[in-house]
Amino acid sequence: MQQRRATVGRPSGTDGFDFSYRMVVDSRYTKVAKGKSRLKSLLLVQTILQAIGFLLIVLDSQEKGFGNLVVVSISAGFISLFLGELGRRRSQANLLRLYLGLSALSAAFNAAHVVRSDLFLKVTENKDISSLSNYELGEVVHALLCVVLQVLAIITTVGLVQNMSPKRTS
């Protein structure tokens, strides 16, 4: 007797015509679609924020030179955005997990740069923003926005990965 070969790829019965049925039966499909949409907008905002951070680095490097933490932060940020977009488009949970790790690392390095350069101390002790230059104020606001956006990205991506993963029956 001949054994049946396992097909690689989509299992039988998923030719695409059952899409509306799956959307009604299992709410995870709609949650994944909404999560992907939210993640797309978050990735767009993060890309804009990374570009602003890059411009801040270029403008600051003319006066002070490149700081290691900032260069690592921006580099890791752009790589994480690339991985996040690939993971979102292809629905690959592993790439989304890598995106989470690298983008969190990027936000942490950005915040560490602000703390290390005494900008945070100037803002909290003086409570007078007028003593800061426009560049320093921009750097502090950029770091705060990165951290807030990172929290939103973590919440969205974790929910998306949980809904993309198969249900566990225990």
TrEMBL record:
Top-rank taxon: Eukaryota
Main localization, broad class: endoplasmic reticulum
Membrane topology designation: Multi-pass membrane protein
Coiled-coil residue windows: none
InterPro entries in UniProt: Jagunal (IPR009787)
A biological process from GO: endoplasmic reticulum organization
Record keyword Protease present: no
Location in or out of the cell: Endoplasmic reticulum membrane
Segments passing through the bilayer: 41-59, 65-84, 96-115, 140-161
Keyword tags: Endoplasmic reticulum, Membrane, Transmembrane, Transmembrane helix
Gene Ontology cellular component terms for the protein in this record: endoplasmic reticulum membrane
Family to which the UniProt record says this protein belongs: Belongs to the jagunal family.
Name of the molecule in the record: Uncharacterized protein
Organism whose genome encodes this protein: Platanthera zijinensis
